[in-house]
Specification:
about 100 residues; alpha+beta; three-stranded mixed β-sheet; about 55% helix; elongated
Amino acid sequence: MSKQNLQSIGSAINQFLKENRLEKKIDISSLHVNWQTIAGEMIANHTKRIFLKDTTLFLEVDSAELKNELHFLKDQLIKNVNHFLKKELVVQLVLI
């Protein structure tokens, strides 16, 4: 086998994920599993549902007071998500 045909395992996995359109599903799964680390314990404890549609993150919380506070923290939450995932996945955050 020539050196040109060799690639790292990581590169091969990344290529497989891209070709099979699995990257976003893995990112979403990682977002769910790590939500407490990303958003903090208090926000995570009050999060009822979280989902991603295109580049918009939808976040449902169980407290009207927290929802009001999160309006002021939208940009920071978006930064936290994108920083954690190491990509610009989320552009907008909608509180429901």
